[in-house]
Amino acid sequence: MPHKFSQKTPLAWRQLIKEKARLMVAIGGIAFADVLMFFQLGMLDALYDSATNPHRRLEADLLMINPQVKTLIDMSTFPRARLQQTLAYDEIESAYPVYVDFAPWRNPDTHLKKNILVWGFDPVNPAFALSEGEENLEQLQMLNRILFDRASRPEYGAIAQLFLTEGTLEAQVNDRVVETVGLFEMGASFGADGNLIVSDSTFFNLLRDRNSTQVDIGIIKLIPDADINTVKAQLKAGLPNDVEILTVSEFTQLEIDYWANQGTGFIFNLGVFVGFFVGIIIVYQILSSNVSEHLPEYATLKAMGYSDRKLLIMLMQEALILAALGFIPGFVVSVGLYKVTYAATLLATGMKTNRAFIVLLLTILMCVISGAIATKKLRSADPADIF
């Protein structure tokens, strides 16, 4: 059986290369459809990854938020007293607040203002696992000292370069002078173009309308060997319903669900469908034209004893060959497009193995569907037509 299958492959290949111009058009069309799907899926992943990057970095066993919270960029607060109540539970080791809000940042060069996301917490109990900047947390205890996100959008100014050159840098946040004492890397997202880390005292000095008794996120850490699910259930049962207790993964999923239900997520998913549909049309046109032009030859093969099934297999082989030939340039172009997109937006775009596998499967499915549609013409090949 494998020997018979391999014998049919050259015939399918010869059918395709007979019209080289048409083959190149088909490869280009499939590559275009793949690039479209790659780009939409890449941006969708960048949306979710960038939006949830802060969530995944939170150093907590459990989190406390307002039940109305759906996304980090539109937080609602809860009473700080709720965090203090958790300390009555034996399994709770510590509980401390994190404050999150937007504040206007003035570009030191252009003097233009742009909102930046400010994270405030006690530097003694850092909320994030920082790959850099940890050595500067102690300096944050001094008023109006900040850590600047080196992966923020360039509209904030060349802060990272200036800091590395000069060793310190003054800027303005909400018309108050602050001093940059270190850098960290969080990254821009669809909701926030940049981030600052400050102490809780600096946070309230910069955002005078905020109240320290109202918390955005509560960080809860458990004693060793405590069961997270058990403690979570106890807190949910024992605390008032003006707070919600979540694991870090649940808080992350909450953010993903928010963006998935917004128009942005729908648009990217729609783009994948459009690319898939365009690819089906392109491959169908190529295969249909191929069948139409060689209909007498197919009729001859039928007269020689070829069954419809064998001819359909040959047509499917053509479809799979087109899928493989079109995927390769589509993959290469998409890798370059991801690099250009990252340079322009600083969003975490990049090729992922699972995404490449998904697009490859979609490409194969796209070509198989096209081949299945094109087989209707193939069945019309009548051996009587050659006489």
Strand tally is 11
| Averaged pLDDT | 85
Walk across the major sheet and give the strand order: 3-4-8-5-7-6
Question: Low-confidence parts, pLDDT < 50 over ≥5 residues?
Answer: 1-9
Query: What characteristic shape results from the CA principal axes?
Result: elongated
Rg, rounded, reads 29 Å
Q: Treating each run of at least 4 consecutive H or I residues as one helix, how many helices?
A: 11
What proportion of the residues form beta strands (DSSP E)? 15-25%
Order of helices and strands: HHEEHEEEHEEEHEEHEHHHHH
Describe this structure in words.
- By secondary structure, the protein is α+β, with helices and mostly antiparallel strands.
- Helices cover 53% and strands 17% of the residues.
- β3 (92-106) and β4 (113-121) form a beta hairpin.
- α2 (20-57) runs antiparallel to α11 (353-378).
- The longest helix has 38 residues, at 20-57.
- The model is unreliable at 1-9 (pLDDT under 50).
Fold topology:
Layout lengths: L1 H17 L1 H38 L4 E4 L12 E2 L1 H6 L5 E15 L6 E9 L23 E5 L9 H8 L2 E5 L2 E9 L10 E5 H7 L7 E2 L1 E6 L5 H11 L5 E3 L1 H13 L2 H31 L1 H9 L4 H38 L7 H26 L9
Parallel strand pairs: 4-8, 5-7
Antiparallel strand pairs: 1-10, 1-11, 2-9, 3-4, 3-6, 3-10, 5-8, 6-7
Helix pairs in contact: 1-10, 2-7, 2-8, 2-10, 2-11, 8-11, 10-11
Structure described in brief:
This protein is α+β, with helices and mostly antiparallel strands. It contains 11 helices and 11 strands.
